[in-house]
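Why should sequence recovery work at all? Because a backbone constrains its sequence more than one might expect. Tight turns favour small or flexible residues, buried strands favour hydrophobic ones, and helices have their own preferences. The token representation captures these environments compactly. In the example below, the structure is given first.
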């Protein structure tokens, strides 16, 4: 089965974090699996907007990494905006994590199998998963997996 994976901005940023070589290796492996067709990769316009706010030197490297991974680009829709509003209304997203709620809404409405992130604080944690699942069910959407790259099959060698 080919899983459809939405990659948030933390995936691309991880390649430029010199503090955790294992995280860099896992991220490279995930991106390689996308390029070889093992998985389908997707990013939202939100990812490109976040990258656009990075310092110029880093921004250029991040954009090159996104291009090399060749993900499909997903645009927000009225349905994803409505789902974002529903997530936000729960009050469980911190003010600084608005974009995370947008990533989840775009990925869910687009029918992704999983959202992949290194953001354990705001995304890959039990509380967030339960919140997203409950909102998705109430609004007629599937329960999207929210995982780190380490949970994607074949990433760990």
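From this structural description, the recovered sequence reads:
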């Amino acid at each position: 089965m080919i899983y459809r994976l939405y990659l948030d901005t933390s995936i691309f940023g991880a390649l430029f974090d010199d503090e955790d070589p294992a995280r860099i290796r896992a991220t490279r492996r995930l991106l390689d699996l996308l390029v070889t067709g093992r998985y389908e990769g997707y990013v939202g316009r939100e990812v490109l907007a976040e990258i656009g706010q990075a310092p110029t030197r880093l921004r250029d490297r991040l954009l090159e990494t996104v291009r090399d991974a060749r993900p499909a680009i997903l645009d927000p829709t009225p349905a994803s905006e409505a789902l974002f509003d529903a997530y936000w209304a729960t009050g469980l997203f911190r003010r600084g994590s608005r974009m995370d709620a947008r990533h989840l809404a775009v990925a869910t409405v687009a029918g992704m199998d999983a959202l992949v992130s290194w953001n354990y604080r705001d995304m890959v944690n039990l509380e967030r998963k339960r919140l997203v699942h409950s909102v998705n069910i109430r609004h007629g959407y599937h329960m999207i997996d929210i995982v780190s790259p380490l949970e994607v099959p074949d990433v760990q060698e």
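A few observations help interpret the result. The first helix runs from residue 9 to 13.
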